[in-house]
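Researcher: I'd like a structural prediction for the single chain below. Treat it as a standalone chain; there are no partners to consider.
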Amino acid sequence: MSAVWNSILSGLPVLIVDLGVTTVLLLCGIALYVSIAPYHELRLVRQGNVAAAIVLAGQSLALAIPLAAMMANSVNVPDILVWGVVTIILQFVAIVAARLVIPHLPSLIAKGEIAPALLLASGQIIAGLLNAAAMN
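Model: Treating it as a single chain, here is the predicted structure.
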């Protein structure tokens, strides 16, 4: 039982720091996304725009998935920071690519169009999954 307790005491601080750093990266990525979106996503969500909510949820998942995989494979905080930033950059590249594929995407989301929102959200999540796999 002593070995288990020692393991918890030595591992818990590392877990808390790694989780904290990764959570901050996730929140920064979401904040960056919301700040550069071509429409006021949070306002649209508050107004009941389901399309905007779908896109924001998709982006949040798309950032969380590779960040979680990255944290699981990182060896220290600098490693988490470097690969976390790479993860966020790759997700933004995927967003730009999706906007090139779907013309007038921002205006469609702002109007509450569900179909393009689902397509964008699924593309974001797919990119997140591929990023996560590539980081393993």
